[in-house]
Amino acid sequence: MVLGRxxxxxxxxxxVLLISAGLLLVVTLLVGIFSxxxxxxxxxxxxxxxxxxxxxxxxxxxxxVERAVxxxxxxxxRQPGNRKFMYEATRELVTANPNIIGSAVAFEPGYFRGERWxxxxxxxxxxxxxxxxxxxxxxxxxxxxxxxxxxxxxxDRAMWSEPYFDEGGGGQQMATxxxxxxxxxxxxxxxxxSDISLDWLSSRINETxxxxxxxxxxxxxxxxxxxxxxxxxxxxxxxxDVAAESGDADMLAIAExxxxxxxxxxxxxxxxxxxxxxxxxxxxxxxxxxxxxxxxMDIFLFNxxxxxxxxIGLAGLYFGCRKVIRRQTMPLVExxxxxxxxxxxxxxxxxxxxxxxxxxxxxRKSLEYMQWSINDYIRELKSTTASNERYESELNIARGIQxxxxxxxxxxxxxxxxxxxxxxxxxxxxxxxxFVDAGDxxxxxxxxxxxKGVPAALFMAIARAAFRFVGAMGLPMAExxxxxxxxxxxxxxxxxxxxxxxxxxxxxxxxxTYCNAGHNPILVVPPEGKARFLxxxxxxxxxxxxxxPYEEECIPLQKGSRLILYTxxxxxxxxxDMEQFGEQRLLDWADSLNPDVSAHAAMLxxxxxxxxxxxGVAQNDDITIVSVLYDx
Length: 632
Description:
Blueprint: H1 8-77, H2 83-96, E1 102-107, E2 120-124, E3 131-135, H3 147-155, E4 159-160, E5 164-165, E6 173-182, E7 188-197, H4 198-205, E8 215-219, E9 225-227, H5 239-246, H6 249-259, E10 264-268, E11 273-279, E12 285-291, H7 292-329, H8 332-343, H9 359-405, E13 416-423, E14 431-438, E15 441-449, H10 453-471, H11 477-489, E16 498-506, E17 511-517, E18 523-525, E19 532-533, E20 553-556, E21 562-566, H12 568-571, H13 582-592, H14 599-614, E22 623-630
Antiparallel strand pairs: 1-2, 1-7, 2-3, 4-6, 5-6, 6-7, 8-9, 8-12, 10-11, 11-12, 13-22, 14-15, 15-16, 16-17, 17-20, 18-19, 18-21, 21-22
């Protein structure tokens, strides 16, 4: 095929090539712009982790040395006059701790019978590796004037010395941890020391460098090199000397921050190098120096390989796309015509045959299956539509029957008025209410059946019928509840139940006798004062246990008192943000209610408040409200 030929395959292949080349150019530019920052951040993180690891290792050794000295300190301070024990204590420190190359107990002048020096010292011989003990104080080695003795005694605290070359016995470069000793009376009598080798520190620090040409160095609190790749600088130069020789202000700033005990990151030598540094607990500081030339070499090589492989990929992508697209587009026109015919409503249109067994054959099968599915769907849709219409009709009839079971006429009664409503969440629900006028007494109740839908509606009808039948007998409230419960338990194999609040209002005496069977507490709104929830003895929901002994309670009511009965569809009504209406909003509504409104108006007011709260969100549970006003 000629490259310039005007075919879909060539045209689409060129589009793919141009788009891919454009993306490659953008990616290359972005890599060029952001690679330095990315690599700088990554290299800083790697160097920082190497620094933290080395500091952790050194701190571990330093900590072990300090703990070892603390462990021996207690014994030494309780036997200051035991000269033999001092040799044994220092030997034990050196023998038990491989990081300690020497240990001494250096006493104050004249502590032992006027002797000016007494300092038992045990050390590891640098040449033979043997452990030896000597008394190192004498005219040529007055340890009282040395820093490791004088400074801790003056400051009265444990501390690490500046690094030094020991000529009193160790014969090597070291640093000393010194701990002031006091007897049981609190009187200072000497210094307990442990030495570590600077050669070991140099060996460990040389392993810290994360990149080629990187190096690490350890400096003392005064900036003296303790460890450095160039051994001639150890104890002979400070980091300030190096900064002064280079004339680099950034290097001087690094030195100042290190001796100040700060941790940080800085570039120097005109941005060609960068350093990470951090303090140790004993005042020393570790420095890791890296070169950006080494760091950026990897990304440079990576970019070259990336461009090389992308160019090869673009060439392969072009020729591959052209071949595949050409093969795939040949029979598409016929498929398009068949699809257009079906789109016009002729779902029996002929689909062209395909001889290949590749994606085109799969596409033909898909079109064929789509044609069959559309025809089958049309048949099922007609059947389902008819079935749904019958089902919805039956549910509407059931809803009408259920709502017809509940009383809708609320006659005027002497001494009180009552109004109620039910708003199911589905076509049918399990909430109910009822009342029976039995002379001077008005029996009323509100209930919520477990579950929803048709089963709950059927159980609701049974419970409501049982209450109406038993309530008309004028029995005590506890017996009314027991009989209703027993009638619901009979044949209740599915263990359905209903929570009920039932009450009997004696309009002549002005008393309310009630029984709460697992239902929400009702709201009592006195003519004056705050509304409150009516506390009731706990009773089991009806329908769960035969012959359950229900307990009734009785309270007096003031004239003008209002009772609000409800189901959990009121308090658990949810807004779009899942917040519920809740009991506190119910109390606030009751407190704001005008005492002169009728029972009917109060019921409508509460329902409106709930609907306003949920703001058009679909109702998640049945809502039932019963409003009773005692106005005798």
